[in-house]
Amino acid sequence: MADRLSEEELADRSGTSPEHIRRLVDLGILQSEDGAFERRDVMHVRVVRQLDEMGIEEESLATALATGHLSLGYLESAGRRFPRSDVTFAEEAEAIGVPFATLDSIYMAFGLPRPEADEFVRQEDLEALREVRILFAAGLDERDVIRMARVWGDSTRRVAQYLPHYFHQTVEEQFRRRGLNDNDAYEAALREVGLRVGRSGEDLLSWLFRRHSEAFATEHQFGHVETALEQAGVRQRPPHLVETAVFADLTGFTELTEESGDDVAAEVALTFAQLATEVAADYRGNVIKLLGDGVFLQFRDPDDAVMASLEMVDSAPSRGLPEAHIGVNAGPMLYDEGDYFGRTVNLAARIASQADAAEVYVGEPVVRIVSGDGFRLIEIGNFELKGIAEPVTIFRAERR
Question: How far is CA 211 from the centre of its chain?
């Protein structure tokens, strides 16, 4: 019996009363053997309480369990309690040297639940907050740290949010096609895929982060080397190329959605995103943002930007996509929190809105700095663009 729990022990560990445990037994949600329970029942009781707080009555759970449409096995993880430290959030804020309100803002920027001042910090949180301590100790102010937290929080949240969606739509669907009901399909998917994958998803995320970090860190270090050589009078730093913004959109996407439905439109958007990613890789560009029926890309070389745009326009029909129309503009751009801002970006988007199907329209700043190898730019006129005070001269790009 050492590996089993009494009614009182189960009630104490799950945070409820013996009377509530007996009620769950009467409903058939819990099973006991000579008045003893399995240790996993602690998680089951916690999950039942959580579901009741969310408005799902215990009687409804009991019925679904009895008919075989529900099991509590895959819900056990929701009943786990992460160990708490003996440090409150107010004490941790004092140790870091910031007001509790600052720590509260950092948690909100991370996208995590807001802490209470007298709440004990989870042990894993305490270890992560050591990184925050280092940043403040280095002299960064609250705004700097919150900016970092917002980028990390938003990016990680998007990955975490997508994984259950992908698992349900893609992995579980393979088991539903075998005739299993929703609950059994989820159980089978967890058993045959989820449990076998284990923590490898986290490992994959760590690996991918390291690979991306390596590339950007190397680029950053190279910039410092160039600065050092210039300051030593050894080598003049090469002039910085003007960055280029590209907005690519699909023609008639709204009509496609109305005629063919959301599923078809989503598949088209994913195909276009893949095309843009491939072309950007071939022409030394970066996909900055996916916009449903459009993509925002950044290039360091305006010639690459124009050639990549022509490649996307030419390749879209062969991928089964509607024709694309694209706007290109060059000039200074402000980079922060993983995105680009400024007049150059706004103009590129406005130019794209003027472009006809299968056309690449280019702003005048691009014309002044490109070499034109492989393409030519033809002036098509001055345009009044929304939000832009003066008319803008626009050119059409064509392959030579």
Answer: 17
- Give the residue ranges of the chain where pLDDT is below 70: 1-2, 77-79, 81, 198-200
How many CB atoms lie under 10 A from the CB of residue 109? 18
Query: pLDDT digit string (tens) for 328-382?
Result: 999 999 988 888 999 999 999 999 999 999 999 999 999 999 998 899 999 999 9
Give which of 323, 345, 348 is closest to 334, Cα–Cα.
Answer: 345
Residue 151's contacts (CB-CB under 8 Å, 6 or more residues apart) are 337, 338
Cα gap 44→14, rounded to integer Å = 9
Strand partners for 325:
249
In the chain, domain spans: 4-79, 84-167, 244-399
Q: Which residues contact 199 (CB under 8 A, 6 or more apart)?
A: none
Cα Rg, the chain, nearest whole Å? 28
Q: Give the torsion sign (CA, 167, 173, 178, 183).
A: positive
Residue 1 is predicted with a pLDDT of 47
Element (DSSP H or E) covering residue 42: helix 41-53
Can you say whether residue 187 is alpha, beta or left, with left for phi > 0 and alpha for psi between -120 and 50 degrees? Answer: alpha
CATH 3.30.70.1230 fits 244-399, yes or no: yes
Q: Residue 295 and residue 288: Cα distance in Å, rounded?
A: 8
Measured between alpha carbons, how far is 17 from 25 in angstroms, rounded to an integer? 13
Architecture of the domain spanning 4-79: Orthogonal Bundle (1.10)
Q: CB–CB of 96/130 below 8 Å?
A: no
C-alpha distance across the termini of the chain, in Å? 83
174-229, pLDDT tens digit by residue? Answer: 999 999 999 889 989 988 888 777 666 788 888 999 998 998 898 889 889 988 99
Q: Which residues have C-beta within 8 Å of that of residue 251, sequence separation ≥ 6?
A: 322, 323, 324, 325, 357, 358
Give 54's DSSP letter.
Answer: T
Instruction: Give the largest CA-CA distance in the chain.
Output: 88
- For the whole model, what pTM was predicted? 0.75
| CA atoms of 154 and 151, how far apart (whole Å) | 5
CA nearest to 186, candidates 17, 70, 306: 70
Q: 288, 268, 279: which is closest to 336 by C-alpha?
A: 288
Side-chain-side CA neighbours of residue 362 (13 Å): 29
